[in-house]
Q: What sequence folds into this?
């Protein structure tokens, strides 16, 4: 599936700390055959890809539509509709389907959201595959 991850408060905290488990879950999702993208209301976030050395995992970065979500994909240059989104804002999840995450908190607190995200994506992919069979 094409998985679109929001950046702020989904993968990184307000003070640009990486959420626990992000790289491990990226690695596992790619091993499972998924394609990973970042998108953000602030534009393509290549600085985050660089800072956390995500080049091996992230295929591309895009602008994320904040309203008229489906209609604006074309205008924002997003070449296809995401299969699944991971976001701390329910509007995006409501528009495309996916999972809503708790905003990433302060660093060093126990945070297992990414483990839950992985489990949700895997369950969704399995339901998808079953419904196509
Ligand atoms: Mg966000």
A:
């Amino acid at each position: 599936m094409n998985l679109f991850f929001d950046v702020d408060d989904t993968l990184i905290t307000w003070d640009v700390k990486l959420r626990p488990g992000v790289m491990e879950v990226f690695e596992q999702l790619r091993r499972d055959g998924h394609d990973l993208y970042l998108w953000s209301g602030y534009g393509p976030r290549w600085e985050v890809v660089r800072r956390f050395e995500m080049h091996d995992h992230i295929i591309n970065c895009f602008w994320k539509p904040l309203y008229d979500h489906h209609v604006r994909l074309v205008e924002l240059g997003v070449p296809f509709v995401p299969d699944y989104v991971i976001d701390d804002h329910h509007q995006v999840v409501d528009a495309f389907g996916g999972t809503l995450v708790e905003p990433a908190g302060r660093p060093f607190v126990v945070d297992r959201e990414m483990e839950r995200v992985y489990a949700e994506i895997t369950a969704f992919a399995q339901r998808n595959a079953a419904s196509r069979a």
